[in-house]
Every structure is written in C-alpha cells, then in structure tokens.
Amino acid sequence: MARKQSAALDRKKFFADPILTCSVIVLIVFLALFILYPLTILLIDSFVKDGQLTGSIFDNIIHLERFQKAFFNTMRAGILTALVSTAIGLLFSYVDVYVRLQSKFFERMFNVVSLLPIVSPPFVLSLSMICLFGRAGLITRKLFHIYNANIYGLPGIVITQTLTFFPVCYLMLRGLLKNIDPSLEEAARDMGASRWKVFTTVTLPLMLPGLGNAFLVTFIESAADFANPMLIGGDYDTLATTIYLQITGAYDKQGAAAMAVILLCITVVMFVIQKYYLESKTAATLTGKATRARMRITEKSITVPLTVLCMVISVFVVAMYIMVPFGALFKLWGRNYSLTLDHFKAIGDLGALRAFRDSALLSVIASPITSILSMVIAWLVVKKKFKGRGFIEFTSMLAMAVPGTVLGVGFIRGFSSGVFHTGFMQNLYGTSVILIIAFVVRSLPTGTRSGISALRQIDKSIEESAIDLGADSGKVFFTVTLPLIKDSFFSGLVTAFVRSITAISAVILLVTPRWLMVTVQINGLAEKGLYGEACAYATILIIVVYAAVALMNLFIKYFGTSKAMREE
Amino acid sequence: MSKEKKGIKLDHISKIYQDPKTKKDFYAVNDVSLDIEPGSFVTLLGPSGCGKTTTLRMVAGFESPDTGSIYLGNEKIDELTPNKRDSAMVFQSYALLPHYNIFDNVAYGLKIRKVPADEIRKKVTDILALVGLSGMETRMTNQLSGGQQQRVALARALVVEPGVLLFDEPLSNLDAKLRVSMRTEIRRIQQEAGITAIYVTHDQSEAMSISDKIIIMNAGVVAQIGTPEEIYYHPVSKFVADFIGEANFLDGRMLSHEGDTGILEIQGVKIRVPEASHIADGKDATLLLRPETAVVADEGFFPCKVILSCFMGAYQSYHVMVGDTKVAVMDYNPRGKKIYKVGDSAFINFDQGKVHVL
C-alpha cells in the first residue's frame, strides 16, 4: 500500500501555507545553527588537528591529571547531590500529598521554598554558605568559635547544589504522587499492611521510575552547574569549571573542546535515559488522575517527625537567602557587624549601574524572542505534522541537556573564526547578539516544555474549527493558540528574563569588556574575596528578579486567561 | 442564503493509516465513491472505526486521500488546505473558541473573510435568531448549556454560507432527550438554509430521523446507500440489517419463484417472501424478521419455546427458540393480550408480505 498521494497532497497543503513554511524553516535554521552546529564543531575540534583525523587530543586530555580529577569530582558531586536532592524532594512531596498539615503556614512555606531556586541567581546559596559556614562564618566562627572551618570543596558544593535543586525534585515527585490512585494503597492497607509496608511495597515501587527521573535531572543540573563549584569549590574542580579554566587560564581551546564533548556525553546520555526510557515508564505505571481525594495521614507518630524535618530544611533554605542582604549590609563580615551601605557605594563605583543596565537590556531583548520561539516550537510539535518536526522537537529538548559551559565553548569555537572557520558570520562573535542568542538557547527548553504541556490541554478541534472557518496558520496561532496559552507565554517570558539575567556559565565565556554582566561581576568579586560587594550585587539582582516575577503574577491576574475559562 | 447549492462527489477515495502497534498499513477508508446532491442531507452511519469520520475529515481537508479525488460542486478540491475549502464543520466537542463570547465566535469566520463590520453584525444577529440564541451575544461559551453551545457551533458554521455543512457526531455529548430535540432542530435549520449537509453519526435513530439518504459504512467500505426506508426494509447484507434496528435471521433455502415472490423453506416450513428475485432457486437464503413485525401466538409459521418474557410497557419482549435459533419478538401494545410465560410452547406469526430475504 502506498501512501504517496496523501503525502504529496499534505506536502502541497503545507507549502500552500507560507507562514507555516517560513516559521518551520526559520526554526530549523536557528536550531541547527545555534544548537546543533556548536556541538558539532566541538566534536570536529576534538578529533581533527591540522586537517587530519586524530585521537591524540582526546588522548592528551584523558591522561591529563587535572581532567581525571575533574571527571571523578563531577561524578561524585553529581551522584551525591542527586541522591540527597531526590530524597529531600521525596520527603517534601510525600508530606505535601500524604500528610495532613496542621496549618496553612506550611503550604505557604512549601510554595516559597519551591519558588526560591527559580528566582534566585545561581550563586546566591554559595555566597550565603560562605557567609554562614566559611572561615569567617557567622555560625562557624561566631557561634562555635571554629576558626579553620572549611566549607569549600565537595561538602559545600553538595549542600548548595542540593538546596538549589531539591525543589525541582519536589515539584516533579509531587505531580507523580498526586497521580497515584489512593485505592491502590487503601487496598494494601485493607489486606493488613502497615503504613510502612504500604510505602515500601506500593508507593515506592510505583514511584521508582519517577525517582530515577528526578535523580537524573538533578545529576544533569549538578554536572552542568558552573557557578556553585566556581565559588565554593575551592580546589575541588568539576568539569564545568575546568573547561572554563582550560580556556581562560591555559588558553587550550582544543583541549577545552574535548573536555566539553565528554561533559556533553555524560549529560546527554543521562538525558536520553531520562527522557526516552524513564518518562515512558513513569507514564506507564502512573496512568491518569487519582479518582478520589486521599485520606491524609493524621497519626502524630508520622506527621510530627516528617513535618519537623521539612520545617528544619525550609528554615535553613530561607535563612540562606536572608543572609545575602545582610552580607551586603555588614561592614566587614566576620569582624565588624555594624550596618553600612558602603558595599552598595563600592559596587556603584565599580559600574554596577552599567552592569545592571546591560544585563537587563540584553535579557529584555532575549526574553520575548525566547518566549515566542518556544511557543511556536511547542505549537508545531503538538499540533502540526510535517517532516522535520522530530528534528525540531529533539533539538530544542536536547538544549536542556547541554551545559552552559559546553554551549559557551561551542559558540567560541563555532563563531570566533566564522561558521566552520570560514569567516562567515564572524562578525557575530564578541557582540551583544551572540549573548542574546546564548540567552535564548539556554531558556528555550523550559519555555518549550511549558508550552507543550499547555497546548496538550487544548482540544485539537478548537484550532481545527478556526482553520475550517478560513483562518491560515498565522491567524490561528495569533487569534486562537496564543490567547489560549497566554499564561504559559507570560510565565515563559518572565522565566526567560530571569534565567537570562542570572545566567553565567555560557555568558562568562562569551562576554567581552563592551558589555558588563551582573553575574560575571559577582563572580569576579567573590573570587577576589570581596563578599560584601558580591552580596550587594546579588541583593539587587534578587530584588530585580523578584520584581519581575511579581509583575508577571500581576499581569497574569489581570490580562491572563480569565478565571472562568480556566475552570472549564 | 442566496448562494448556489453545491453537490459533493467522492471519486474512489481511500485513506491508508498505519497501525501504531503493529506498524502495518491498513485501509481506514477503502475505495469509497459517493455522489451527494446539492441541498440534500446525507448521513454517514457506521460503528466506530468504520471510516466515517475519516471520510468527513477528507472532505474538510484535514486528511488527504491516498487514492481518488473529491469535488465540491465542479471544483476539484484535493490540493486545497482546509481554510481554503468552501465547507464548514460542526465538531463533536463544539470546539468553540473559549476566549471569545458568542458574538465573536460566530463572527470569527466573517472577520477572516473581511466582511464589513456592520454586515457582520447583521448576519450574526440573523443567524443567532435562526438557531434561537437571540440576546445571548455577549455571553461566554462556558456560560452556555451543551445544547446552546451546539447551536453556537452550528450558527458559526452556517453564517459563512458554506457550500457544504459537515457534522462530526455533533450530538453525542448531549443527553438523550436533548439529542432528540436538537436533531429535529438541525434538520429544520438545514432545510431553511437549503444547504448541502454531510452528517456523521453512529446513532441509527439519529440517522433515520434526519437524513434524506443514509450511507452505511463498515470497515472502510460503503455497505449500502439508500433512503432510511430502503435501508430498513431492504438491507443488502446481514451487517446492514443488524446495524439498523434489531434483526432476527432465520436460515433456509430458496425452493422456487413465482414471479418476484420466492418460496423459501426454513426448518420444513414454506414462506412466501416478496421481492426475492435476487436469490436463485436452490440457493441458501436468510429470512430477515424484524422483532416488531412478529408476534407470539397460538398458531403461526414456526413452533417455538419461550425462554424470556418481559413486560416493557410499550411492548412485551419475548425471546423464543425456533429450533436452535433465538428469535426476539416485540409484541406492541400488550394490554389485554395473551401473555406467554417462560417455558410455554407457542408459534411465531407474521405477515409474509412484510419480511425481507437476504
């Protein structure tokens, strides 16, 4: 049987829609040029020397002691962080879904804690870690009079990364736990199992793929994390920081490329397992929604210890964030705790205004581009059928697994001497445009994912009815699709802005003196040990970011999808 | 509606799909040819998976056929995208745009066609009056009942004055009573607008009550085309007979013919059946006996044993065994009649002129 005629007709119909055709072509070019190509050039770079295929670059790198150390450091930190984050995430989600909480306060606390890592710049936790537990730490030195406390290295990295990433696990696992049908557990209880037995024989096995999922996602995040190891790692270098040092310190771009390929391989393998194996397993074991509300656990012997544990962690997290503005206000951390605005004045003299202006400007330009692009991608992936759809979906999701450092090196290698070292588009390198593109690529996957899940909620026939009444693809997108996923669009806009203004890993490799980036400034100050100034910067950054999020919520409240509509 | 009515022609249409599990190709629609007259109301009826919705979606342009062509009026429309086709569809889920009010929903197609604003206002007002929703212009779609949403969907399709109106199981989300009143409504509005309509449903009573012609589909092919009466009284196959209404089948053999009338022997009993010239002498034949045409009586054609007797109000429902064959009988208006009990022996009786032979 041949499906030639329908394929030919579908093709004709596709090309009869110029807006659809154009958007697909633009997207494919964009994704190929700015995601696939930089990664390809890294591969080429690490195998080709002087025009000849060689394994020597890899050979050199693999035998480099610094690389070996970094590799095992990355794995160790990744596994530890992922384990602890998943465990804490499970604890929080279990308490949220299964335990009857005594007051609204906990719910609000959970919300705050899960929101914090989204709105916080990546190194805030490292900064406050140093303030609290460092050599001049408030707790270590003031409270316990430990003068040689060493938070730098593996413990520091694991603690900061865990606090940063466990909320992601919490949100993932909460969604899964909510989908477990309570009757399954009630059946087990009914047959005589204790609560603990139910948890180990029913709940946990059902959650297993989901836990694996959370583990791998956290592992990828940890391996890709640049800011925390940079600040609090001390001499505990991970791959991400080593790649950076290889470029900025050793000027070995080819070696950096080879390391980047290895880091990329690790994250992509994890990503593929997570995306294509575990996600389908999760979907298979946890189908559909729970039919009834769950009877919450009320036994004091269970609720009290669990909530107390969550409380302690939450308080710790919140304390860490509060520490940053204090760090900015104290005259000299560890010595002189009198309040002062000196640090703010100091960063003002260092060009903080310009840095914020530059960062904000580029982020403001990047976020609508990201948001529109990700909505268009989501729309094409969910609602349209065409050749190349698989490519678009895969590439935009792949970007999720690409560590910022790898992307940064890829951009350097890919564009500093033009595309494929031909000089074509060479002018791009060193401009603000490439920074904006890096912002867009970095935020694209999150936006796309949220767009896809929003669009899946919308009945296909709603768009079909608009097409049927004569609207072309562009018209449908702007009059039907976009208005229906407005909320997702707005939040994508702000998430892109937040991610851009707090981005560091790719940016630190691409930035030129013409543009001052806030995050790069903070990193520089912290490296010099000027924690007060770094905290001052970070404080303002948190305020800016929080204002953006508040603005978004306000916007969604008044201009978003109407409440009545959402209830449908 | 001053526009010229358009007919639709499907010329040897097929659609091949791939089974997602076995990865094997199969015909969802297989060599379907139809000729639908301008202004007529035609229903595609069949069990789920018979290809009726796929056929409708090919007419709308959402799917492309693998063989054959589709003509709307005299125009071949195969290569046109759905938005360029002169058809309008009423969806099963209504598919109203939830962010627009009723007026804007109905006006959507007119705005796309760049109709002047005052004309839009007039047309929308008129069409809302036709579907009985005057004064509801500013309501949001979720403030309407299912039936009202369906009317909006219908108004939205009608207002652009399409060459053909397509219905994809439009009433299946409504409750039973509303379904009955809505189908009468749809028929009335279609007649008033004088528009060609193709209607997809799996509900036979809906199809019977609404259509000029019914097209019965099964497994991708057309099983029979005809008026509701033709299909009910003269089904061409067991499938059609069974699908439309309830049917009992009694197997036998054609002995001889007297003109058009056939002499059929079933379990030793000879029956004279009308319009039997399509079955040759000596061939196996099946008698189609509708439950409402038969009665259980003290005398009749076939001796039988009652295995179920149940009072249904409007009729007494019997299941009887005729030899090895179970036969359902509905004896209407049972009040005052003799009621047979389970285990009784009796006869099945019927009017020989009102049966059909397959």
Structure report:
Chain A has a domain at 55-330: MetI-like (MetI-like fold), CATH 1.10.3720.10. Helix content of chain A is 76%, strand content 2%. Chain A contains 26 helices and 4 strands. In chain A, strand 3 and strand 4 form a beta hairpin. In chain A, helix 2 crosses helix 13, helix 2 crosses helix 17 and helix 13 (253-285) packs across helix 18 (404-415). With 358 residues, chain B is of the alpha+beta class. Chain B folds into 2 domains: 8-238, P-loop containing nucleotide triphosphate hydrolases (Rossmann fold), CATH 3.40.50.300; 246-357, OB fold (Dihydrolipoamide Acetyltransferase, E2P) (Beta Barrel), CATH 2.40.50. In chain B, 24% of the residues lie in helices and 36% in strands. Chain B contains 8 helices and 20 strands. In chain B, the strands form 4 sheets. In chain B, strands 6-7-8-3-9-10 form a 6-stranded mixed β-sheet, with helices on both faces. A 5-stranded antiparallel β-sheet of chain B has the order 13-12-11-14-20. A 5-stranded antiparallel β-sheet of chain B has the order 15-19-16-17-18, with no helix packed on it. Chain B starts with 7 loop residues before the first strand and ends with a strand. The model of chain B has no long low-confidence stretch (mean pLDDT 91). The A-B interface holds A 1-7, 9-10, 12-13, 16-17, 459, 461-462, 464-472, 475, 479-480, 483-484, 561-562, 564-565, 567-568 and B 15-16, 25, 27, 60-67, 78-84, 87-89, 91-93, 95-99, 108-109, 112-113, 140, 142-143, 153, 156-157, 160.
Any key phrases for this structure?
heterodimer; A: 568 residues; two-stranded antiparallel sheet; globular; B: 358 residues; alpha+beta; Rossmann fold; OB fold (Dihydrolipoamide Acetyltransferase, E2P); 2 domains; five-stranded antiparallel beta sheet; 8 helices; 20 strands; 24% helix; elongated
